[in-house]
Amino acid sequence: MSGESSTVANGAGAAPDPLARLRQAVRMPFVTAALVLVIGCVASLAYWHHTTLQRQTEERQRFDASFAQLQTDMQRRLDELRGVVVGLQGLFLASQHIDRGEFRRYHENLSAHLRTPGVRAMHFTRRLGADQRAAFVARVRSDRSLNGRGYPDFDIHPATGGSEHYVIEFIEPFEANRRAFGLDALSQPVNRESFLATRDSGRISLTAPFQLIQANSGDIGLVMRAPVYRRGAPVGNVDQRRAAFVGLAGISLDAGTILSDVFAASYLDGLCIAVTDLSHDATSASARASAPEPRLRPIARRCESGAKPGNAPTAAAIVPVGDRLWEIRLTAGKGWPSGPPDTEPALVAVGGMLISLLLAALYLVLGRARGAAERLARRMTRDLRRSEQRFKIMAELSSDWFWEQDTQGRFIDISGSEVSERGLPMPVDRAVGKTRWELSPDGLTPEQWADHRRRLDRREDFEITYVMQDLNGRERWIHSRGTPRHH
Asked: What is the DSSP letter of 176?
């Protein structure tokens, strides 16, 4: 055999195709496995980073929401306390002659419905000039409206010798606060400045945190007061208010208790709360001139687990409370955020990297197996082509030919020989598409052809010999064998 072949080559110096180089690299199992591993690890770390940032954002939003709720709850508590003071003030504005029994009944009725913690006492402080002192003491000592003996030991204390006195006349519950009964509150600097500022402003005031005389040592208290003026007297300016001033209705508070239920709310779990008084020691202009810098006084705090180390979330706000300024500060504690730590992002990241490693290893193994299979397929294809070529040469040298037919018995392909005395009796194109009994209806009897067709329908092997005329009209004996092939 002889043949010709031709090839087409690229011109010299042609630039390499980047896509071809990329495809060649992808076919390399190690390179692709490395890419799978890198991409998987990067994706896992990106997920972990994104989830961590998202969790931090959610924690900050939760922290800010807790701080906003804390301010709302504290404001509501302060409003409740103001309501108690305004109610007590109204009692003395409604009547200029309240006796001890009326005051006690008012306290008992209010206490039965009051749900605000930390209210230690309700009291009325009366302003007295030095010339009114003796008559006032005598009247209280002889007051038997609640006690048949009166109060024979009553006196204004401590003795200050001043030109006026601010004396606690009524106080309930009485026994728990007996030490404050008859106290000249002007003797206490914190109370003194609060009294004078409230008298002149006409507004509710709050003292700085200080030690109440009736409280245990170390227990810090606050006093909230409202001024009481003579009914019908003008109070349009400071001088008028001073002239009409009668006294102060107020409540004494335990600083560590008034916010206890607020601090115990579940939304504050794991957080540290601190409330501090930032105002000047005194609220009058003269006292502010002598002490211009505010003094920080802690009012209440709660921090069960200690402050969280590092850059812990913190929020602070300054709110007016009466005539004072309070700072509310919230800081994340060691136990915040509450609940078990969220390990899901880290686990997902580690799991993702492990899966990436497994996928990379699997791809490497499959890539190598694929390479081996491709090499085997190429070798088998090459061998098959060589075998087909040998078969074709042998078929061409023989008088036999080979055929294929469809399920209806029609020839669809004939090869292996040429039209000759010993080869094909007719050209291939005349035979393709026809059956044996159509090409040679007289080659067998009708019964023999019918039996042959039945064997074909049953997909059975067959072997027949029949006569056929060639192109020259000569009879040719054809011997044919066939085996069914199923697709």
From this structure: G
- What are the E-state strand segments in 188-270? 205-206, 210-211, 220-229, 245-254
Higher pLDDT, 151 or 27: 151
Enter the tokens of residue 377: 């397929």
Distances (CA, A) of 418 to 47, 89, 361, 402, 432: 72, 130, 57, 11, 14
Number of residues that this document lists for the chain: 487
Q: Which residues contact 98 (CB under 8 A, 6 or more apart)?
A: 91, 92, 124, 170
According to DSSP, the residues that pair with 301 across neighbouring strands are 274
Same fold, 57-332 and 398-482: yes
Express each pLDDT in 304-316 by its tens digit: 777 777 778 899 9
Residue 250: which of 206, 308, 311 has the closest Cα? 206
Please check the confidence at residue 393 and state whether its pLDDT lies above 70: no
Instruction: Classify domain 57-332 at the CATH topology level.
Output: Beta-Lactamase (3.30.450)
Spatial separation of the C-alpha atoms in residues 400 and 417, rounded to whole Å = 7
d(CA 354, CA 362): 12
**CATH number for the domain running over 398-482:** 3.30.450.20
Q: How many CB atoms lie within 10 A of CB 260?
A: 13
End-to-end CA distance of the chain: 34
| Domain ranges for the chain | 57-332, 398-482
pLDDT in tens, 113-132: 998 999 999 999 999 999 99
- Percentage, residues of the chain above pLDDT 90: 40
Give residue 214's identity as a one-letter amino acid code: Q
Contact (CB, 8 A) for 229 and 241: yes
